[in-house]
Design goal:
Glutaredoxin; 2 domains; disordered N terminus; Thioredoxin-like_sf; TlpA family protein disulfide reductase; signal; AhpC/TSA; Thioredoxin_domain
Length: 233
């Protein structure tokens, strides 16, 4: 029985190592699959076939981008210091945003609540496509556990992946990354009527964020849990 268990564990870890060696970057995966997606998605939007457009987006994420590794890009923090993605050691909940996007009533309070609860386990990162002053002003609305970063395209000679992240998938977009920066999922924010009362808006946003964070934590701990369970007498 012990020999069988050893063989299973050896195959498991060998397979994981191989898949990591074969893993491609997000920018590579996007370059391969984005042109076809944009061609089909543009047609769907032109004909107002929003169900088809959503299906195409989900297919791009699920079959082409999940499992790729998000490139180690560099941006600025609010002190104007350079910071890279790989500096974050925990699983990352990364959302790209812009000042011209109006959040729903309960969106920021819900995210703040979860950042307060899960900051020991998850790095919450908010990346604004704006200048420093705008990002600094917007940061005051968010919990201190949320790391606010920015990209000023008038000054920033950012890497290829930064431009791809902004212009390819739309805003806002959330990237769920494990500790190795592998993409677990990519999600758009939920939408609801802006006239919805605060309590209902909070609940909708909270449930959406919480489900994403739960998935991130489960994915991050699954390999450890399976291994620990297998080794338990």
């Amino acid at each position: 029985m012990k020999k069988l268990l050893l063989v299973i564990l050896t195959v498991f870890f060998t397979g994981s190592s191989f898949s990591q060696q074969e893993q491609i970057s997000f920018s590579e995966a996007l370059s391969l699959h984005l042109p076809k997606y944009k061609l089909q998605a543009d047609k769907a939007y032109r004909t107002r076939n929003f169900e088809r457009a959503e299906f195409l987006f989900d297919s791009l994420i699920n079959y082409s981008l999940k499992g790729s590794r998000l490139d180690n890009f560099k941006v600025k923090d609010l002190r104007k210091n350079s910071i890279s993605l790989d500096e974050f050691q925990k699983p990352v909940y990364l959302t790209t945003y812009a000042s011209w996007i109006v959040p729903t009533k309960g969106e920021i309070p819900a995210l703040n609540k979860l950042a307060e609860k899960y900051s020991d386990e998850v790095d919450f990162v908010l990346l604004f496509w704006d200048n420093h002053d705008t990002a600094k002003a917007l940061a005051k609305k968010y919990h201190k556990n949320i790391k606010v970063l920015y990209v000023d395209e008038m000054q920033n000679n950012s890497s290829y992946v930064i431009k791809m992240m902004k212009h390819s998938l739309g805003l806002p977009t959330s990237f769920l990354l494990n500790k190795d920066k592998e993409i677990i999922d990519i999600r758009r924010k939920i939408s609801h009527p802006y006239g919805l009362e605060l309590e209902k808006s909070f609940d909708l946003n909270f449930n959406s964020f919480n489900e994403a964070i739960s998935l991130l934590l489960i994915k991050d701990s699954s390999q450890y849990s399976q291994t620990k369970e297998a080794l338990t007498p």
